[in-house]
Design goal:
By secondary structure, this protein is of the alpha+beta class. The chain is built from nine helices and ten strands. The chain has three domains: 30 residues, no CATH class; 74 residues, K Homology domain, type 1 (Ribosomal Protein S8, Chain: A, domain 1), CATH 3.30.1370; 82 residues, Ribosomal Protein S8, Chain: A, domain 1, CATH 3.30.1370.10.
Length: 265
């Protein structure tokens, strides 16, 4: 209305009418009619495009592979969205922990949706070939294998193209390695070699600590009580008085008080 200096009355939703009333100079109204017709064409094209973009396709993917496709923090599926230009809807777990449906719904242009289907099925075929090997590693060296902020295990996973899963139970030593057969074998052997190397250090430290352990205060106090300091066979001991004669003084005289010139008579 501002651009063409006309008044445009659009019917309300309740009126359910198609006609739009224009008021103004004839020349301006003719220009508005052309502009409105062009706008209608754009809206119709957009509506048709939305219909094309909303093409939906269900792709059968076993639920056990959903997490692998989604990736850590959704990184895997986000990458697929950007590359293929489609949306992926994964089924949610039902009530009472019911089984998760297998189908993944792909939404987008039909051609792109079909391409996304082929990519998903190729990933399923690849995941079907994966093997899992469980190895037993002492829990005391798990942290060393993982490394600071996971750097150690990330390097190993990238090197061998495998996924390494550590147990949530800190007392369990079972580590699982998932990937292609040869890659899994190589990764598992490297983990076992590292674990053996790290365990040598652990055992050495524990042995050193065993020698460095000092008795507690209670044990020290108890030991002192049981080990009184005694001097045996000392000259002043009563049992050894015979070794030191009284130099001729009788026992009675020895007990009497001494004067300046000897014992009192």
């Amino acid at each position: 209305m501002t651009e063409y200096e006309v008044n445009i009355k659009v019917p309300s939703q309740s009126e359910k009418a198609d006609a739009i009333i224009l008021k103004g100079l004839r020349a301006n109204i003719d220009k508005v009619k052309v502009a409105l017709a062009k706008r209608v064409e754009e809206l119709e094209a957009d509506k048709a495009d939305r219909a094309l973009r909303n093409f939906k396709l269900e792709v059968p993917v076993p639920s056990k592979y959903h997490a692998s496709i989604i990736g850590k923090a959704g990184a895997g599926v986000q990458k697929l969205r950007e590359e293929l230009g489609v949306q992926f809807d994964f089924p949610k777990r039902g009530k009472d922990d019911a089984a998760v449906p297998d189908a993944i719904v792909v939404t987008g242009y039909e051609a792109k949706a079909n391409k996304a289907r082929d990519v998903l099925l190729a990933k399923v075929a690849e995941l079907d070939k994966l093997v899992t090997r469980e190895i037993d590693v002492d829990p005391r060296v798990h942290a060393r294998i993982i490394g600071g902020r996971g750097a150690g295990i990330k390097t190993l996973q990238d090197k061998f193209k495998v996924r390494v899963n550590f147990p949530r139970d800190k007392t369990s030593g079972t580590i699982s390695v998932v990937g292609q057969f040869d890659d899994v074998e190589d990764a598992a052997n490297e983990i076992l070699n590292k674990a053996e190397e790290y365990m040598e250090g652990v055992l050495e430290r524990e042995a050193t600590r065993a020698y460095e352990i000092t008795p507690s205060k209670e044990e020290t106090a108890s030991g002192n009580k049981n080990q009184e300091f005694k001097v045996r066979e000392a000259p002043w001991n009563a049992a050894d008085q015979a070794a030191f004669p009284t130099l001729g003084t009788s026992t009675a005289t020895a007990k009497a008080p001494l004067g300046a010139w000897g014992a009192r008579k």
